[in-house]
Design goal:
CATH architecture of the largest domain: 3-Layer(aba) Sandwich
Radius of gyration: 18 Å
CATH topology of the largest domain: Rossmann fold
Order of helices and strands: EHEHEHEHEHHEHHEHEHEHE
Number of helices: 11
Distance between the termini: 32 Å
Number of domains: 2
Helix content: 40-55%
Shape: globular
CATH class of the largest domain: Alpha Beta
Length: 280
C-alpha cells in the first residue's frame, strides 16, 4: 500500500535527524493512532509526538480553505516548537486538501495518506469497491485521479460517513458505539446501483479501521477492508533509514483546545505508549 501514501520525494539533510528528534504524527482526532500502531511495529525505538486537533474536529464538514489554513498553521507552529525529523499527516481529509500547502511552508519530510484505492482494485474479485470517508475526502479531485489511474475498469462507490468518526472516538474512550452510524454506512453503500456486489471496502479515514470489526458485521461475510496505515509506516521507515534514534523523554500526545482531557483518553493513550498528555 506504500504507493497510496503521499510522501516527500527525498529525505532532508541529516541535520533534521538528531537522535532525539521525534516523528510528529498529526490527525484531527485519535484515528491516527491506527497509523502509530503500525509505526511502532517497524520503528519501536522511534520517539513520537502524537498531535490531535480535537478543537477542529470534525474536518469532514469544513471547507477546503478552512482545513488547509488550519492544518498548515498548526503544523507550522508544532514544527517550530518540537523540531521533528518527519511529519506524518495521518488523516485522509487533511492530506488530500492541505498536503501541498504544508510542504510549501515546512522544511521537513512530509508523509500523508490518501484512500487506498490501488490495493483495493487489486483485491476485488467482483470489480465493485466501496469507499467510506468523510464528506470532504470523498469529493476531492485527488480521489478522482486515484480512481482513474488505478480503478478505471472497476466500479467505485463512495459514501461520506461522518458518524463513523464519532463512533470511533467513542470506542477508544470506552463509551457505547452508535451502531446506527455503522449499519447506516453499510446500508448506504449497498443501496447504490451495483452495491450488492461490493466485496472490498476502502476505509478512507484513519478513524475507520478502529471499527473494522463492527463494519465487518454490518457488511456481512465476504467483504474485505483495506486502509493505508501499513503503507504509511513503511514510507516513514524508508525515509528514516540509517538515522539514529534516542528516546530521551517519554512519548506524548498533544490535544488542541481548552478544557480537561478525559481520563478515558489518558488510559487509551497509555496503551499506545503515549505517557504524557498536554494541551497545545
Amino acid at each position: 500500500m506504500a504507493s497510496d501514501s503521499l510522501s516527500a520525494p527525498h529525505a532532508k539533510p541529516t541535520a533534521w535527524a538528531r537522535p532525539a528528534a521525534p516523528i510528529l504524527l498529526f490527525d484531527s482526532g485519535v484515528g491516527g493512532l491506527t497509523v502509530l500502531d503500525e509505526v511502532r511495529k517497524l520503528l519501536p525505538q522511534a520517539p513520537v509526538i502524537y498531535a490531535a486537533d480535537t478543537a477542529g474536529l470534525p474536518y469532514g464538514s469544513k471547507t477546503e480553505a478552512q482545513i488547509a489554513a488550519r492544518v498548515s498553521g498548526l503544523l507550522g507552529r508544532m514544527t517550530e516548537r518540537f523540531h521533528p525529523r518527519l511529519v506524518c499527516i495521518a488523516c485522509n481529509t487533511a492530506s488530500t486538501i492541505a498536503l501541498g500547502m504544508v510542504r510549501e511552508v515546512l522544511e521537513v519530510p512530509i508523509v500523508g495518506t490518501v484512500p487506498a484505492i490501488k490495493p483495493a482494485a487489486a483485491m476485488t474479485r467482483t470489480g465493485v469497491i466501496g469507499l467510506l470517508g468523510t464528506q470532504a475526502t470523498i469529493r476531492q479531485a485527488y480521489v478522482d485521479r486515484l480512481e482513474h489511474e488505478f480503478a478505471a475498469d472497476k466500479l467505485l462507490l463512495r459514501h461520506g460517513a461522518p458518524g463513523l468518526v464519532d463512533a470511533a472516538e467513542a470506542k477508544l474512550r470506552g463509551e457505547p458505539v452508535d451502531g446506527s452510524a455503522i449499519t447506516g454506512a453499510a446500508e448506504a453503500l449497498r443501496a447504490m446501483p451495483g452495491g450488492e456486489r461490493i466485496d472490498t471496502v476502502v476505509l478512507a479515514c484513519t478513524h475507520f479501521p478502529l471499527l473494522e470489526e463492527e463494519l465487518g458485521r454490518a457488511f456481512g461475510p465476504g467483504v474485505r477492508f483495506v486502509h493505508g496505515a501499513q503503507g504509511i509506516a513503511r514510507q516513514i521507515e524508508r525515509l528514516t533509514t540509517g538515522q539514529e534514534w534516542s528516546r530521551q523523554v517519554p512519548d506524548r500526545a498533544l490535544f488542541t483546545g481548552a478544557g480537561n482531557i478525559p481520563d478515558a483518553y489518558r488510559a487509551m493513550l497509555t496503551h499506545f505508549g503515549l505517557r504524557g498528555v498536554e494541551r497545545f
